[in-house]
Amino acid sequence: MLGWFEGVQRDLPWRQTRDPWRILVSELMLQQTQVARVLPRYEAFLARWPTPEACAAAPVGEVVTAWAGLGYNRRAVNLHRCAVAVTRDHGGRLPSDLAGLLDLPGIGPYTARAVLAFAHEADGVGVLDTNAARVLARWAGRPLGRAEAQAAADDAVPTAEGWAWNQAMLDLGATVCRARSPRCDACPVEDACAWRAAGNPEPDPAIGSAGVSGGQSRFEGSDRQGRGRLVDALRRGPVSPDQVAAMAGWPDDPERAGRVATSLVTDGLAAVADDGSLTLPR
Q1: Could you say which of 27, 62, 148, 255 is catalytic?
Q2: Could you give the number of structural domains in the chain?
Q3: Which residues, given as ranges, of the chain have pLDDT below 50?
Q4: pTM (two decimals)
Q5: Is 165 contained in some domain?
């Protein structure tokens, strides 16, 4: 597995650093976003905010504006909130233990373990995203529960190889052990896979296994699309109450647009000015 990864690994900027902040930024940007879209945003973001303190000192609206093109804008708010907490409570340094990372706003089990594995090269810490979870379920030949999947991910990490092993697992799931049309003949650990040994029977054991994504709901016409349109409009300037429906893409449904606008305010992605206009938060 490690030999395979050494021969195929991509030269990505977040693989050239062990700085916890830079790792955290990459992980939040990469969640449900393609690498090609992240690459230019990653370098530009860190050039502007190279430390948690720098990010915390900026208005959250500026961070949301810099997030343009990455989607899932709430991640920008979470990153800013995390930077504020790290600056206020940890002297500008991310915690180096799982409990401390999980205590930060916007940091879940996957992201916390990714920081430990990729910044600190921690032993016994398995990074369980949808790709790694798919690999583990197929290796086991059956769906895994949440605790079981995490334990399997942790136990699989070879001593002193936490960084390389977890990177290899993520790449294996993304490029070989794919959700559709897995390339079993190209898998470096094909002989260890129970699903392959059984002849790849249906149903695929990854389906319904803990940590394996079930796929996104339809984006076109969804509230998520309307939220994204409104945030894009706010990046250009304030949106008056009578413009909200049109900017959300529903000129004939102001009630729905208003509900979506309220959800943006609740999530910290928008604020209401004195004249009732929507703006980016300050």
Answers
A1: 27
A2: 2
A3: none
A4: 0.92
A5: no
